[in-house]
Structure formats: structure tokens, C-alpha cells
Amino acid sequence: MGFKGKLISLLVIAVGLTVLYMTVGANGNWEYVLPRRGYKIAAIILTGAAIAFSTMVFQTITNNRILTPSIIGLDSLYMLIQTFIIFTFGSLSIVMVNKHLNFAVSVGLMILFAGVFFKLLFKREGSNIYFLLLIGLIFGTLFGSLTTFMQVLIDPNEFLTVQNRMFASFNNVNTDILGASLILMILLTLFFYKDLKYLDVLALGKEHAVNLGVDYDKVVRRLLVVVAILVSIATALVGPITFLGLLVANVAHEFMKTYKHNYLIVGAILISVIALVGGQLLVERVFAFSTPLSVIINFVGGVYFLYLLLKETRKW
């Protein structure tokens, strides 16, 4: 089967699962069911696309298929921002009540962090993948420790607000920012489109990319901004999902069997939508909401991560 045939197969499965999710158990109550499931399915598709897109780009920049943007602490930074706002201004402050303002502040700070991270890491002479892991783990641990420190000091009622944002949930989607997220993703796609042609070259490594005429620093800086915004969108919509990006990016590589990112990115997005919509369908219709989808994804993703580590170890 060719690349286009594989993408069409994935598209058919994704559309089929979406139609199934929208219609199963409706019992004719379309006016009540369709708007509510419509918002949820829109959030699932946006989240799946954002995570798949950002992970695929991040793995290409770092030239490593077991890394996700979580390694540089972006998820932890989002939780630190939310906890700091509640710790300092309270859960009834305008930054927390106004979801659009909260989203704008979170995205702005994460973009600022991505810029600082770029200067610390990618412009430093002799930097390599081990330095990336070290700095990323340090930032992630620092953000996590500061978040925990503030959480144990705040009022228990305020902590409940923080707790709601700590775990990913597709049953409690932040629908207030769905429109803003969709517009932002369309603008990002237009912004990113001209850099799509560079991803195949960046996958060869920094030296090869520079020798082939790519303005490496400029392109990578732009791509890191895109990754930071996409992670912000996904986390603000449903909460942090650690292993989804790792799972769908690697499955896309195995399924598509190509280095061309225009096929890989579309394939990863469709696989992500299939995993989330199919998973949510199972959670609602088979497990009766007894298990959150994020727990299943993190369990399967964690096992797959161990498999990738063992697979890479055997090569050594």
C-alpha cells in the first residue's frame, strides 16, 4: 500500500470512529447529545493534532525518537504557571476566571521559556543530546518542586482548583478556549507551512542541514515557538498527557515507513485522533467512565517507552 493509501485508510478509520462516537447511545435526543459531544470531539481532535504535530517536530529537531516536549519541562511549566497564579492572586482572580486571559498568559510565558531554552542549549557550542536531556530534566524537576512547594502552602479549597488542572480529562474539556485554540492552530499552520520543507533536511542532523544551506538557528527557533504554543493548547484544553506524543509519533514512523514529514505528520495526527476517539469510546461505552482515558494512554505509552529503550539498548 502506498503512502496516500495508508493516509486514506487512517482517515476512514478516524471518520468512522468519530461518527460512531457521535451517534452511539443517542436514542434520538439529537438536540441534547450532538452539541455536547460535538464540543468534546472538537477538543479531542485539536488536542490529538497539537500533540502529534509538536512531538513529530520536536523529535526531528532533537533527532531522537524517544523524546517529547515534556523532556524540556513544558508540561511542568504549565502547571507551575497555574499554581503560581492561584498561590499569588487566588482562584477568583481575573487571570483564573477569564479563561482567554489565562490561556494568553500561559502561552506567552511558555514561548518566553522556549526562547530562553534555545539560547541556553541550541546556540551553545558543543551541545549534544545528552546536554538536552540533562537541562530538560533539571528544568522539569525545578518546575515540579516549585509547584509542589506552593501546593502544600495554599488553602485546601484553592488546591482543588489546581488539582482539576493536574490530570488530563476529556470529560471536563475547557470549552471556553476551543475557538481561540482553533484560530491559533490555523495561524500556526500558515506560519509553519513554509518551514515544512526543512524538516526532512533537519532530520539528517545539524551539520548536514547547515551544509545544505538551511539557516539552522532561525528555523529551529521558529519551530520551538510552534512546539511551545501547541503544547500550551493541548495542556490548556484537557491537561497534561505525557506519553501520547511518544506513542503516536513512533507508530506513525512504523506504519508510514518513510522519512517524508508531509506524510509522517498527517499520519501521526490521524493516528492520534484514532487513539483518542477510540479510547474515549471505550471509556464511555465499555468501562462506564470508571477509568480516565489519560490513565490508559499513559500506561500503554509507558510500556511502549520501555520497549523502545530495550530495543535501542540491543543495538548497542
UniProtKB/TrEMBL annotation:
Its membrane topology: Multi-pass membrane protein
GO annotation (BP), single: siderophore-iron import into cell
Metal-binding found in the keyword field: no
Membrane-crossing residues? 7-26, 38-57, 77-97, 103-122, 129-153, 173-193, 223-249, 261-279, 286-310
Q: Where in the cell is it found?
A: Cell membrane
Q: What is its main location?
A: membrane
Q: Name one GO molecular function term.
A: transmembrane transporter activity
A Pfam match: FecCD
Q: Which key words tag this protein in UniProt?
A: Cell membrane, Ion transport, Iron, Iron transport, Membrane, Transmembrane, Transmembrane helix, Transport
Q: Is Transmembrane found in the keyword set?
A: yes
Q: Which family does it belong to?
A: Belongs to the binding-protein-dependent transport system permease family. FecCD subfamily.
The record's section on PANTHER family has: FERRIC ENTEROBACTIN TRANSPORT SYSTEM PERMEASE PROTEIN, PETROBACTIN IMPORT SYSTEM PERMEASE PROTEIN YCLO
Protein name listed in UniProt: Iron(3+)-hydroxamate import system permease protein FhuB
